[in-house]
Amino acid sequence: MATNFFYVYALKDPRTSPARAFDHFVTPDATKKYARIKEIIVTCSTPMADILVEDLTEAQALRMEAELISASGTIKTGGVLTNAVVPLSPACYASPSQAR
To answer: Ranked by mean pLDDT, which of 23-32, 48-57, 83-92 comes out on top?
Structure first.
């Protein structure tokens, strides 16, 4: 049984690629992310949410999320992700044992 309750997920657009993650599907807001979800739904497709890594501590999840966002980039930085908030550098999320 998992002892950590954090995870990292990816929302995918099924038109271009073969949980809290699912909150984005049911909570309308004014973000680019929700606009993309709405656009997917309007074309009779279903957005996909994949849990990429689970059973993480909060620090591990924040670090992994930062690494993935950094690797893919946001629309604002020339990438493909619609994230409104870009996490700090992955190095900022090192666990106390890694920081020594």
So the answer is: 48-57
